[in-house]
Amino acid sequence: MNVVAKTETGRALGDAFASARDRLPGKGKIADQRRQAFEAYERSGLPHRRIEDWKYTDLRALMREVLPLAPAPDAAALGRAAAAAKLRAIDGVRRLVLVDGAFAPDLSDLGSLEKGLGIRPLREVLDAGDGALSAQAFATDISDPMIALNGAMATDGVVIEIADGAVLAQPLHIVHVASGTAPASMFTRSLLRLGRDTNVTLVESYLAGEGTKAYQAHDALIVAIGDNARFDHVRLVEDSIDAFNISSATISLGAHAHLNTFGLTSGGHVSRYQLTVTCAGEGSKVETNGVNLINGTQHADTTLFMDHAVPHCASREIFRAVVDDRAHSVFQGRIIVRPDAQKTDAKMMTRALLLSDDAEADNKPELEIFADDVTCGHGATTGALDESLLFYMRARGLPEKEAQALLIQAFVGEAIESIASDALREVAIATAQRWLEARA
Amino acid sequence: MSLLEVKDLKVRVEEREILHGLSLTVNPGEVHAIMGPNGSGKSTLSHVIAGKPGYEVTGGQILFRGEDLLEMEPNERAANGVFLAFQYPVEIPGVTTWNFLHAALNAQRKARGEDEISSPAFLKKVREVAKSLNIPQDMLKRGVNVGFSGGEKKRNEILQMALFEPAVCILDEMDSGLDIDALRIAADGVNALRSPERAMVVITHYQRLLNYIVPDFVHVMSKGRVVKSGGKELALELEESGYAQFEDAA
Ligand SMILES: Nc1ncnc2c1ncn2[C@@H]1O[C@H](COP(=O)(O)OP(=O)(O)O)[C@@H](O)[C@H]1O
Ligand SMILES: [Mg+2]
Fold first, then answer.
1. Total of domains in chain B
2. Confidence class of residue A3 from pLDDT cuts 50, 70 and 90?
3. Residue B246: which pLDDT band, with cuts at 50, 70 and 90?
4. For residue B248, is pLDDT > 60?
5. Which residues have CB under 6 Å of ligand 1?
6. Fewest beta carbons within 10 Å, which of A17, A101, A295, B97?
7. Does B86 touch chain A (CB under 8 A)?
8. A vs B: CB pairs below 8 A
9. Beta pairing partners, A186
10. Residue B192 above 80 pLDDT?
């Protein structure tokens, strides 16, 4: 047997897992899976730069340890969470709130569900021993240590089922709020199952309650999109400036399904978002777009794995990073076109805008193509704001920061434009605007 | 008090002196033409007046209404009434002309302590000006100068000039790349803005423009200096004899 000397923090987490086990819902098979997942995590521990996928985001250096599990929120924490969620409320959506790793029914809209829509807390699904749903919620690959750790530690989340043919008029809004008073970690995991011919929009927001500073949010989202279904996804990360957000989304598409996902990260101290999209049904279409707006000493990593497994699918990625001060933006985009996936049309374009000499942006696009009849391409650029444009704008009376703001808006605009819903596009624009105003 | 006074201005770009002690005095209501061959430093002068980075002023001064212009940020100069119509207006993809003009006008007003202009009032104003310059509305919805022809870009500069109502307008080679019809429209736009309070400095290589915008004074620039000044007849003289005589003189 291979004996690995454990670090102090590794041992502490092992103890934490052992003692938290009773708090973790799911018996039998799920409990076994959790244990296996934890063992998988333990084999590597926190990922570091010698692990290829994590080379730009060395959690051993940046995060050092996984904090103990957050206690269940008390009334005061729920109150702060409610206030934070209200501040970022979006009109016309169905809000589902997770506070410190627990579903908060009192802050959530569970009334008058549309026909074909089912929503349950993950804990309830696991406690009820619903085998098929539980299995799907925990079916993620445990080869990535942080996704494995999430599988081991997830305390709650939401399980959403959309029956065949259901078209939801109202977007769903999962609000992740950290609201504790002591530094802690929260592990959540949510599952969305979209039947065939469905149409669903999901917004996710990451927020902190007033006074909540250092915390670690670990989330995993699993989405299965049925044949002919459409899924629109908008993800807004506005965590507290001391927070860590280590999350993943694993999305699969059936035949002729359509995914449009957009992510904007402006908050958090260190964030990593691992998005894995698999075109599993022919004729499916994927648009993944993202924006990082970061400054100070923020570190934001988006790592995309686009898997073309079957023929006749198209994917488009547009990623924009705006990096100020000493911040560090990372975009890794790997597109794999498997041998069967003929007629794949895959394109990826990433651009980074550096606003200071110390700002850093790493772009790592990778194409692995095993089919011969495909159209694939990628491009990446990194640069500063164009001085001649800035001067022109200033010569017309715009102060430097305002001129920069207009150019930055234009720069990120192409990614934000891709959001299909007018209302949600406005929400994303307003989020970007908050960042721009804060730096002015 | 003079509106704009350039006194013995010396300017370097990348270690090389381009302007070697240039002087120019402009009073309200006057139209000055600056003529000179390519490379004589006309655009350099206009850039330094507008505050473009990258120029090192090694001597002399520029006063605007008696104040040190060189101490002001480019946006402050604009808010105080200095306007440069660029020889090569830039394209700004993703920023609509409309938004840009609105933001710029409000920034200028704010800097002067005036109220912001409301959207409807702004709309009305821009529409009127655009119409007088033959600029179609849909051009204003596009990115600033994106996909504009050379003539359209120049007209867009005049549109901004009309909108901002500056005290001194510097027009750098407004005629370059314009055919005779486009030139006439642009010149009409400029002439409409002539007033007893406003001064213009019209920079051009050719005499042709001065048939449309008739100057009060003509200055000949060569190798970074004003080598001759006179009335409008000087432009005609130049048309016949060319710049060669001044190249030698400089
Ligand atoms: N950014 C620059 N770097 C180096 N040389 C420059 C720069 N701008 C202008 N020059 C030089 O300065 C001189 C004057 O240029 P310019 O002011 O553009 O003249 P004009 O507008 O009269 O044609 C030219 O010799 C030109 O090459
Ligand atoms: Mg020139």
1. 1
2. very low
3. confident
4. no
5. B 13-14, 18, 36, 38-44
6. A295
7. yes
8. 77
9. A217
10. yes
Task: Please report which helix (H) or strand (E) contains residue A273, including its range.
Answer: strand A270-279
Residues for chain B: how many in total? 250
Element holding A154 (H helix, E strand): none
How close B113 comes to chain A (CA, Å)? 13
For A381, the domain range is 8-385
Query: Rounded to the nearest whole angstrom, what is the distance from the C-alpha of residue B3 to the centroid of ligand 2?
Result: 23
ipTM, two decimals = 0.96
Q: Which residue range is the domain that position B50 belongs to?
A: 4-249
Question: Which pLDDT does position A107 carry in this prediction?
Answer: 97
The pLDDT, as a whole number, for residue A13 is 74
- Is the CB of B231 inside 8 Å of chain A's CB atoms? no
What is the token pair recorded at B177? Answer: 């790349």
Nearest Cα neighbor of B203 from B28, B26, B54, B73 is B26
A299 within a domain of the structure (yes/no): yes
Which of A392, A400, A414, A437 should be substituted to probe chain B, the one whose Cβ sees the most B Cβ atoms within 10 Å?
A392
Coil, helix or strand at residue A150: helix
**CATH at B79:** 3.40.50.300
B250 close to A (CB below 8 A): no
In angstroms, what separates the C-alpha of A285 from chain B's closest C-alpha? 26
- Contacts of B141 by beta carbon, 8 Å cutoff, 6+ apart: B96, B97, B98
Mutate to test the interface with A, among B100, B101, B108, B109 (most CBs of A within 10 A): B100
Give the integer Cα–Cα distance in Å for A140 and A323.
32
pLDDT recorded at residue A1: 34
Mean pLDDT of chain A: 94
Of A397, A413, A414, the CB nearest to B78: A397
The answer as to whether A159 is a domain residue is: yes
| Averaged pLDDT for residues B127-154 | 89
Place of tokens 């707006």: A293
Q: What is the pLDDT of residues A115-157, one digit of tens each?
A: 999 999 999 999 998 888 898 999 888 999 999 999 999 999 9
Residue A97 falls inside a structural domain: yes
In terms of Cα–Cα distance, which of B245, B248, B250, B210 is closest to B231?
Answer: B210
Statement: residue A8 has pLDDT above 70: no
Report the 3 state secondary structure along chain B. CCCEEEEEEEEEECCEEEEEEEEEEECCCCEEEEECCCCCCHHHHHHHHHCCCCCEEEEEEEEECCEEHHHCCHHHHHHHCEEEECCCCCCEEEEEHHHHHHHHHHHHHHHCCCCCCCHHHHHHHHHHHHHHCCCCHHHHHCEECCCCCHHHHHHHHHHHHHHHCCCEEEEECCCCCCCHHHHHHHHHHHHHCCCCCCEEEEEECCCCHHHHCCCCEEEEEECCEEEEEECCHHHHHHHHHCCHHHHHHC
What integer pLDDT is reported at residue A2 of this predicted model? 38
Give the pLDDT confidence of A361-413 residue by residue, as tens digits: 999 999 999 999 999 999 999 999 999 999 999 999 999 999 999 999 999 99
Q: Are A286 and A253 in contact (CB under 8 A)?
A: yes
Res A15: pLDDT: 72
Which residue on chain B is closest to A391 by alpha carbon? B52
A410 domain-assigned: no
Phi-psi region of A26 (alpha: psi -120 to 50; beta: other; left: phi over 0): left
Residue A197's nearest CA partner among A116, A95, A120 is A116
Count of structural domains within chain A: 1
Record the pTM: 0.92
